[in-house]
Amino acid sequence: MSITRREFLCLAGAFTASACIASPVVGKEAAVRIPVLMYHAISDFMEEGDGYTVTPSLFAAQLEWLYNNGFRVIPLREIGNSPVEKRTVVITFDDGHASFIDYAFPLLREYGFHATVNAVGELVGVKSHSDGQPMLSWDEYRYLLGSGFVDIGCHSNALHSLERKGALGVSGEELRQDLRTFRETMFAQTGVRPDILAWPFGLYNERTTVIAREEGFRYILTSDNEIFRTPGNLFEIPRKNINNKYDIAVFRTEVKL
Question: 71: which of 13, 16, 170, 220 is 20 to 30 A away, CA to CA?
Fold first, then answer.
């Protein structure tokens, strides 16, 4: 019987995981470090100083490293569960670049990894205002949701502007309406109301958090460059911004537990 290279790695990975981590489950009182990784675009083309793009080859190498070292890549919502195993990672993508479905999704599905894509409502199906890259459409989001490997979160409906200071640049009522518009639009398009929110440019305060919670968001992602520790605050989840400076040596240092 012949098997593919990926099937072999799956078998080897299952052995590695069981041999190396031996299912070390921790109790509710023990803290477990869970790196929540924040990606944006995946492309071979980037401007000098680009702090948000990862090349397809480097992204593939990072996933391969996670798999071969026995890491579990879980849905974001599972970080609130207890007990949580060590060697657990969460993967998120902000903005909703179409490169996700070209480069990231096939690999995630092959490895059995899960990811959350945080979409900007007004950019769905068009090109990004900042870099002109194409963005995922609602048809593509429906396909991704149907796969079982991807959740869709909110990255605001129309507040993705650094010049306007994101969620901090509008009144409380304007923020509330923006979040409602995104949730209603996504429900109409997919049948799912999102409960995951990622603040545009990581700009938020106590007022914006209160409004987001009142509008039904249960998992709120920041851009604070830290590791999430359980049990932690699910309304203020820090993330590591992964860009093309994260070669495997740096990546290993950031996520190794």
Answer: 220
Tokens 């401007």, located at residue: 47
Tokens of 181: 């518009």
Alpha helices, H only, 24-171: 56-68, 99, 105-111, 138-147
The number of CA neighbours under 13 Å toward the Cβ of 73 is 24
Tens digits of residue pLDDT in 86-112: 899 999 999 999 999 999 999 999 999
Tokens 């995104």 — which residue?
182
Q: Give the CATH architecture of domain 32-255.
A: Alpha-Beta Barrel (3.20)
DSSP H or E run through 152: strand 150-154
Contact 54, 39 (CB under 8 A): yes
Question: Domain segments of the chain: what residues?
Answer: 32-255
What's the pLDDT tens digit per position in 41-88? 999 987 777 788 999 999 999 999 999 999 999 999 999 876 777 899
Q: Is the dihedral of CA 38, 236, 196, 67 positive or negative?
A: positive
Structure tokens at 156: 């605001």
pTM of the predicted protein model: 0.86
The CA–CA distances, whole Å, from 168 to 62, 161, 218, 225, 252 equal 34, 10, 20, 19, 34
| The dihedral sign for the CA sequence 199, 163, 132, 52 | negative
What distance in Å separates the CA atoms of residue 101 and residue 224, rounded to the nearest whole number?
26
